[in-house]
User: Fold this.
Amino acid sequence: MDKKLKDFSKKLENLKKLNSKKKNKKNFNDFGFYLKSGIEMISAIIVGLLIGLFLDSYFETKPLFLILFLILGFASGILSVFRTVKKLGFEVGFKKKNDKLH
Amino acid sequence: MADPIHQFEIKKIIPIEINNIDLSFTNSSLFMMLTVLFISIFLISSIKKKKIIPTRLQSVSEIFYEFIANMINDNIGNKGQKFFPLIFTLFTFILFGNLLGLLPYSFTFTSHIIVTFVMAMFIFLFVTLIGIMMHGFKFFGLFVPKGVPMAMLPLMVPIEIISYLSRPVSLSIRLFANMMAGHTMLKVFAGFIFSLGLFGIAPLIVDVALTAFEVLVAFLQAYVFTVLTCLYLNDAINLH
Assistant:
């Protein structure tokens, strides 16, 4: 009886190990995660550029706002990539206490 | 030599022009309608005879349903279930559009940035509206990151706003770029097959592998698009 119980607990342990290994595998989810970062950088710069161009044509202050918002766009691009790589989640702002995403 | 860009050309099938606005029925619109038609036929025919033990077709549509329901539960929580129709429609529309575009002689409407940008812009406006409707003025607290000293706020708030505004741009560029690059690559390699004669077997092998990869990309991009929509909705609904 005792032997049976031990055998069973061993089996159970092995299965648990297998399960946890599977979870650590790079899955479908992660792949999408890394695909994201490159485009994130570019799109932030594009938005900064567009805002700068618009404000410049509105206030006729070429190229003050263009330079300002390009720098800001660059910064926000870096921030987005940083968040993606550090897996801090997609949301605006810093890491929350119980962030579900990784 | 075959032209790899030719496949993206928009052709007018029924020219319509109202008040100098071009509203023609093009091959792009044709394939959007075909996509909707295919989805409808697939879903309706698969659940026509509801069985406790599902048939093969029924279990495929059940997998789709559970996949999206789980995605919403994981990313938004129970509150998000009322957005199920939107998310499900988005996912199936993009997925079937991508897959339909992989067939020979077909057209991939997701490889045009205007199509993906309109979808992304719609989601962006929708999410922002939902956020303002549910939280009112507090929604704009999204732009004030927590744990940042007051002196840094004048710098951080514009950065956060740009980061927020870049969402529809990155969402649309990701889908469009992936689809366009994949289809161009397929055609470029296909062009080598005949011109290389006997050695054309090498690009043929590459093309077969690429086709399989494109199927993966079709699924992956549909998944990424919807999962990001879920995450944006989560931001708006569960404001921290």
